[in-house]
């Protein structure tokens, strides 16, 4: 019998199941700038059915924010190495090997590690690399922080916000994803021109003495020349009462508040934003398509705020003024000079935005985890 065309004998062995990625570890804490983006990525991973947990410290913002979101937090005790005193450096350096060794257990079962950088990320990321676990870093600043610079050549992927950041990582491992930003910022429509220029001034939740002082000095300039402005200013708690009392007598339209709870709404009402230039701030400005005057905090680690601001300025979205030069007179002159180009600058800002950062970060984490499997 000729069996050339007979059906092949079925393989009795069951097919090998496709293994799903295991838990993901989120490394990065201390400040909201490290914790909040990591939480956005963690929520996206959780929505896809993945287990996610964090490593952090008891004194960082993660100790409050992570449990509130329903994620497990594994505690470590570690301090910083960059821009700290000698005693702190010695203490941290002496503890680093032991804390890293303790993190071996944390990374044993994970399929990949996501790092926002910062000193909190150091031990779990080093433990992951030693155990040959994939590490994906998100570096939202133009110049990477200390931890991400140290591990740059070992990472599987680097998710960045500025093209110039590519130079710090191996070729072919970077992707511009931007920083996770609340969807409300992307939904802000272009604001129609108005006879009265609306200016939003915010130095962050704690306020900025430099921005507060310059704003107070500027009121007289705007009033004297009859330049129509409306100023909304987040002062922080420390200066609020003093500034509110003086503003009430200034003859300037607007509002003074210690803290703005609905920042997307405040952005929507503004024609121009004056603020610092941390990664979160510049990402929100780009998402909202808002022109800005950026006054970088001069003591930020590695002067990264200046580099962020300069990148926005090169993109035609902002003007940069040094902290030491920011006065009421400078504010008035810069605002008056920019008044005719705000619409174009807002369009330039919008072109720098990258929506879907959390979704893309989750995609890449799944990708590197499956590649390892």
What's this, in brief?
This protein is α/β, with parallel strands linked by helices. The chain is built from 14 helices and 13 strands.
- The CATH superfamily name of the largest domain is Glycogen Phosphorylase B
Question: How many domain regions?
Answer: 2
- How many whole angstroms does the radius of gyration measure? 24 Å
Termini distance?
A: 45 Å
Strand % is 15-25%
Q: Please mark out the parts with pLDDT under 50 across 5 or more consecutive residues, or reply none.
A: 1-9
Number of alpha- plus pi-helical segments: 14
Q: Could you give the count of β-strands?
A: 13
Mean pLDDT: 89
The secondary structure category is alpha/beta
Helicity level, as a percent range? Answer: 40-55%
Q: Can you tell me the CATH architecture of the largest domain?
A: 3-Layer(aba) Sandwich
Annotated CATH topology of the largest domain:
Rossmann fold
């Amino acid at each position: 019998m000729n069996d050339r065309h007979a059906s092949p004998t079925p393989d009795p062995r069951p097919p090998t199941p496709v293994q799903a990625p295991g838990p993901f570890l989120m490394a990065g804490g201390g400040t909201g700038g490290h914790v909040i983006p990591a939480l956005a990525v963690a929520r996206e991973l959780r929505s896809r059915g993945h287990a996610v947990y964090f490593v952090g410290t008891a004194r960082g913002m993660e100790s409050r924010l992570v449990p509130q979101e329903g994620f497990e937090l594994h505690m470590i005790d570690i301090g910083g190495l960059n821009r700290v005193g000698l005693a702190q450096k010695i203490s941290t350096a002496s503890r680093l090997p032991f804390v890293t060794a303790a993190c071996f257990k944390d990374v044993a079962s994970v399929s990949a590690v996501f790092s926002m950088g910062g000193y909190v990320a150091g031990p779990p990321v080093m433990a992951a690399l030693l155990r040959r676990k994939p590490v994906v870093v998100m570096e939202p600043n133009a110049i990477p922080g200390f931890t991400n610079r140290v591990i740059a050549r070992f990472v599987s992927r680097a998710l960045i916000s500025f093209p110039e950041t590519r130079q710090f990582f191996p070729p072919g491992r970077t992707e511009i994803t931007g920083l996770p930003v609340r969807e409300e910022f992307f939904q802000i429509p272009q604001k129609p021109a108005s006879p009265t220029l609306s200016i939003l001034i915010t130095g962050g939740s704690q306020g900025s003495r430099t921005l507060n002082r310059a704003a107070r000095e500027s009121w007289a300039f705007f009033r004297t020349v009859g330049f129509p402005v409306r100023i909304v200013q987040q002062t922080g708690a420390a200066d609020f009462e003093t500034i509110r009392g003086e503003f009430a007598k200034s003859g300037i339209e607007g509002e003074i508040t210690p803290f703005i709870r609905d920042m997307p709404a405040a952005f929507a009402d503004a024609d121009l934003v004056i603020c610092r230039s941390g990664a979160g701030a510049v990402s929100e400005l780009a998402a909202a398509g808002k022109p800005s005057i950026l006054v970088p905090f001069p003591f930020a680690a590695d002067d990264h705020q200046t580099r962020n601001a300069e990148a926005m300025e090169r993109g035609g979205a902002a003007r940069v003024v040094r902290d030491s030069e920011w006065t009421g007179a400078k504010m008035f002159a810069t605002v008056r000079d920019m008044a005719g180009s705000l619409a174009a600058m807002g369009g330039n800002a919008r072109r720098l935005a990258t929506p879907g950062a959390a979704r893309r970060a989750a995609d890449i984490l799944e990708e590197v985890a499956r590649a390892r499997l």
